[in-house]
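Problem 12. The chain below contains 238 residues. Write out its predicted structure in token notation.
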Amino acid sequence: MEDSRDDNNGDRLGRTELAYERLRELIVHGLLAPGSRIIETEVAERLGVSRTPIRSALQRLQQEGFVTAGRSGERSRAAVAPLTRNDAQELFEIVGSLEGLAAARTARLPADERGAVAERLGEANAELAALEGVALTDRGRYFDLDNAFHRIYVDAAAADRLATLHDAVKPQAERYVRLYVQALGSEVGTSVREHRKIIEAVRIGAPAKAQEAVFENWGNAAQRLSRIIDRVGERGSW
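Solution.
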């Protein structure tokens, strides 16, 4: 007779993973607002699971920086992590460092392989360039195209550990881009020009230049975002 405990454990882990993915998606897309309190019973009802997987998911999200946990009397209070200028700067530097390493690895590929990657990067950048001067009625369009551009050379680097770290951190930066995308969208032309440096470095096989170009792109993006946050304010920080 099979031990049902393994099945129960698998079901529990599956529910926890589902709760984690759905909660992270709600946070990243701003459907759970920065600074808002997370009430386990309400979230459990919304996602159709018990409080146990919600609690486990919140612990994981807290470790990754999506959730904060303060205390009110004797009770712990989970809340969506605020969006702050300093946090954005740190996250963009981390993502820039990881993606810079990926770009350097991609630039070391054989000429025919990196040439194909450069061509795909150019096509993705052209799609992004088409948004310059266009009103962003679809708030996610800018992010999706920009993210697709960077994903090309990250995937081409074929570095599993780096990709795992990248996938853990990038969604935290995504929160900022999605929330402030209307203002960031006015800088499309600047991003496109910075991307061209990355493409050329990959095409000619210059790892150091590729890494530098990516880090510069993310560093400039952090400065642009900082100016926007200074103008319109932080979110959920009070």
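Discussion. The longest helix spans residues 207-232. Students who got a different answer should revisit the alignment rule from Section 12.3.
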